[in-house]
Amino acid sequence: MTKVTAIAAADELGETSARRMVDGLEELGGQGRTVTRVDLAESVYRCVGLSRKESAALVQMVLNELSDALAEGETVKLSSFGSFVVRSKSERIGRNPKTGIEVPITQRRVLVFKPSSVLKARVNGEAAEDED
Amino acid sequence: MIKSELVQRIADRNPHLYLRDVEKIVNAILDEITNALSRGDRVELRGFGAFSVKHRDARVGRNPRTGAHVSVDEKVVPFFKTGKEMRERLNNGVDG
């Protein structure tokens, strides 16, 4: 048993099961469901045995660390998942597709996600390759 | 930043957690996203961004070196769209 399993004792239930019912109804409409922070927190909750509240806080903490690093222009590489790269774009002339009027697109930084070969294989239902 | 550095940063903020538990937590999050995408589901993380998959039809490609025709099977590719808040942070508060 890990140190954190002991903390897990009390929990506020209900929220997630209600959500799954709503999602179940959406699935009947043919559309895939949308996974959110709640679902990520649920899998953290199941894997380590923290309270639901702390699991949710940790999900947010991970996202904050990622955002902070990226906002600093840092590249984030997550092995077997993918990497996030911040690219600087110089100013260019764009065009409003509806009116055809030329408008300058200011210089900016954009975030690009490059999926790893493991992730690409997984979404295609193939076994993950050992390289990432 | 690589995954082990991310794990270390989270662990530094949570002295009550073991490093290996933080590692499990980070992996659980990434696995959940991966599993969702492999089901064809969308993962929406407000403020950060959304992961989804896009369908690519089969096509005839060319080997750029030899010019030989090669058929490329249809496939699904993971896609990430940056969230509004993240976009603003990258551009000092201005939405790009």
Automatic annotation (TrEMBL), chain B:
GO annotations of cellular component type: chromosome; cytosol
Keywords (alphabetical) are: DNA recombination, DNA-binding, Transcription, Transcription regulation, Translation regulation
Pfam families assigned to the protein according to its UniProt record, in alphabetical order: Bac_DNA_binding (PF00216)
Q: Which InterPro entries match?
A: Hist_DNA-bd, Histone-like_DNA-bd_CS, IHF-like_DNA-bd_dom_sf, IHF_beta
Q: How does it assemble?
A: Heterodimer of an alpha and a beta chain.
Q: Which family does it belong to?
A: Belongs to the bacterial histone-like protein family.
**Task performed by this protein:** This protein is one of the two subunits of integration host factor, a specific DNA-binding protein that functions in genetic recombination as well as in transcriptional and translational control.
Question: Can you name this protein?
Answer: Integration host factor subunit beta
